[in-house]
Amino acid sequence: MGRAPCCDKSKVKKGPWSPEEDSKLKEFIDKYGTGGNWIALPHKAGLKRCGKSCRLRWLNYLRPNIKHGEFSDVEERTICALFASIGSRWSIIASQLPGRTDNDIKNYWNTKLKKKLLGIPSSQKKTSFLQQQQHQQLVLPSPYLPYNTFEPSSNLSYQALQPISQEPLSSSSSSSSPLFQASEKQVKLETGSSTVLAFGGEMQNWSTCSEQLDFSNFLLKGFEEQISGMQNSFLEEFSCFGYDEIKQHLLNSNNGEFFLEEQRRQQETEKP
DNA sequence: AACCATTCCAACCGCTCAGTG
DNA sequence: ACACTGAGCGGTTGGAATGGT
């Protein structure tokens, strides 16, 4: 048996919102607020819409101080840095970019940034991220570099990439840090002159042993410190961090200790 | 001008999680 | 402890807009 639907689909309107619906919703929320109950809101506001649809429309479009239009360079870099750090946690990323919504950032990532980072040719003026960074280490999360569907593009710098390991890292391996062992989909790619490490964006695996919020804060805090320590090169050369640098920095932080402690505890409980 | 391909983004869907009784 | 409910989230999709031939 599936989950009960949140509303009667046959009685609610779907598709694009009309200006009339927008103003109804906006006026109602301006007057009464959401009341913490989105399901009841459309009926009260006189809208033939699902509560979820109203919520989405409000959060992504109607709510005050929403920014639309082009993302700035700083916003782009923030998105890239956070994606490399925490993966596709769009709501957390959005919380770092005032006025931007998770949906906006997700769309921007999927339609523009991802392509830019992977060096897929486009009409845009900038040279590709990989082209700029041939002699440096990069950290990219794997959802957009999945090794099982990895297909080099015709782009020269991208073509040079070759998977050298497709095995999930063993949790008993002593050569890599505990922080990265927990990632299920870590893959190392090498070019002639540089190393690219791609690790899973699915951070939930890492956080099974801790409160998700604490873990997110841990990652964000670590990355903020990382960014502040590399401010100049970060701003000038896009978001580019070495694997070892990130690992070392995060492990050196207090939160790193917290994480390792949690991990030790988890390993204890997993023992037969 | 007409057609087709691609890009973009608003909106939807289905899932997880937290709160509540 | 359990079931139920609503909020919130991330992945996916439909279709409008745009670009190319």
Automatic annotation (TrEMBL):
Positions of the UniProt region annotated as Disordered: 1-20
Top-level taxon of origin: Eukaryota
Phylogenetic lineage: Eukaryota, Viridiplantae, Streptophyta, Embryophyta, Tracheophyta
Keyword field contains DNA-binding: yes
Biased composition (Basic and acidic residues): 1-10
Molecular function per GO: DNA binding
Native source organism of the sequence: Vanilla planifolia (Vanilla)
Annotated GO CC locations: nucleus
Protein name, UniProt field: Uncharacterized protein
Chief location: nucleus
Alphabetical list of SUPFAM superfamilies matching this protein: Homeodomain-like (SSF46689)
Domain annotation HTH myb-type: ranges: 9-66, 67-117
Domain called Myb-like: residue spans: 9-62, 63-113
A Pfam match: Myb_DNA-binding
InterPro entries referenced in this protein's UniProt entry, alphabetically: Homeodomain-like_sf, Myb_dom, SANT/Myb
Keyword terms: DNA-binding, Nucleus, Repeat, Transcription, Transcription regulation
Compartments (UniProt record): Nucleus
